[in-house]
Amino acid sequence: MADSSKPGALAGIRVIDVSRILGGPYCGQILGDHGADVLKVEPPQGDDTRAWGPPFQNGVASYYMGLNRNKLGTQLDLASERGQSMLLGLLEGADVLIENFKTGTLEKWGLGYEALAQRFPRLIHCRVSGFGADGPLGGLAGYDAAVQALTGIMSVNGEVGGEPLRVGLPVVDLVTGLNAALGVLLALQERERSGRGQFVEASLFDCGLSLLHPHAANWFADGQKPKLTGNAHPNIYPYDAFATHTVPIFLAVGNDRQFELLCRHLGTPELAQDERFVKTYSRSQHRAVLRQLLETELSRHDGAALAEALMQIGVPCAPILTVDAALQHPHTAHREMVVRIGDNYTGVASPIKLSRTPATYRHAPPVELSGS
């Protein structure tokens, strides 16, 4: 684990994070993991996610704990003149403001981007929003699952012949937080040239649409409405979940060479020479019969052993693990992807690996808050 006493890539960058729920706090945690000095400012009642349990740790929901490490915490009532004045004081010398207030709220308080930019010309003002400020849905609040529904994500997630399903994790919120952090870094880089801050926005709606690959690309090309395909990839095959004699596996065969290696390992090299399966596009066209043939062969194998053997010879494959098994996998430990801070915090580490200035873990999430 990295030495937490060494400065990270963003050492010296000061962030005021007044956001709540997921996208904004996740952005702040990314910046904090890489050395930024992040102060999380919560309303008097606290971030909503403090109550999003069970489970709870020290009276605070684990949901909150997963998004707010490497931050110090305080409370301010930004609806009051005193709270607004104190926020302005915090922004003196700050580099980044992260917020996800409903459009118009900060403006009503005299704390909108235009007002802050006049007072703090170097400040990077990052807003995570549902739909942006204007347009048909401008200014409306957005939540992950509703945006998954609206942007078409649910329509391509579900079993063949079934109903559309929400992706089982808040993928839109998470990618919005990632894009917000990326936008902040772009703005910090540009500020080195111009000396000026700017407004950065990542909206859930935009980010949801950005996740539609390859379905959007396919629709742009042929005009065919994407359909539910279950675990199967819409373009390539075998790229699907399969039963074995023991545990299920996922095959992710993306080219002809990988398919040839798979067939050879299964003892059926003739499948790779079959005109129905010899090319990527033909395997996709004849996926139903190919699936039946593969299932017959796979039913003779132990799934875990087969997946490991296939990975070793260059065929992308994995057993389908539960969350607990994934977090306890030996490679998870090797990659140092579980981090502990003190006795009361365990979380998933930063996936961003830097050789000289790696992520560090200096502060557990702020369970107790200072301020007023």
Automatic annotation (TrEMBL):
Pfam families linked to this entry: CoA_transf_3
Key words of the record: Transferase
Family matches, as InterPro entries: CoA-transferase_III_domain, CoA-Trfase_fam_III, CoA-Trfase_III_dom3_sf, CoA-Trfase_III_dom_1_sf
Name of the protein this chain belongs to: CoA transferase
Keyword Transferase listed: yes
Gene Ontology MF annotations: CoA-transferase activity
Lineage of the species this protein comes from: Bacteria, Pseudomonadati, Pseudomonadota, Betaproteobacteria, Burkholderiales
Taxonomic superkingdom: Bacteria
Listed SUPFAM superfamilies: CoA-transferase family III (CaiB/BaiF)
Keyword Transferase: yes
